[in-house]
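Collaborator request, handled under Task 6.
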Amino acid sequence: HITPEKFYVEACDDGADDVLAIDRVSTEVTLTVKKDIPPSAVTRPIFGILGTIRLVAGTYLIVITKKKKVGEIFSHAIWKATDFDILSYKKTMLHLTDIQLQDNKVFLSMLNHVLSVDGFYFSTTYDLTHTLQRLANTSPEFQEMSLLER
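Structure tokens returned to the collaborator:
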């Protein structure tokens, strides 16, 4: 969900009420609940957050807008991110000079090129950041941690 003040990322898991709120001015990230999302927010589906990047114009949020299932590991779906959106935290570019606008445009073009190259994979239930061999040699405590905590 997008408002002029914040981005709200709502989990689509059944029963999930937590919402990630990202302030577009301070860039502060907090947890809130669904009822805090203003009705005026523009809503669109995403499949994940790739990250943020700071360019000449300010900070941008990179989100996954399309995905394709490419396989499974131990019954865990593995997805390939196939399309992205780059969302500006700033509401306007009026604070930039013509040269800065041109530089920002070039950097956005470069970023779009990098995102168009194959190789962005993710899973919401399986740890793709560690090899199977490494996972087999970790402690039971590590195995029980959420993917976020790892």
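The cover message to the collaborator said: "The mean pLDDT is 93. Residues 45-144 form one domain. Please let us know whether this matches your experimental observations."
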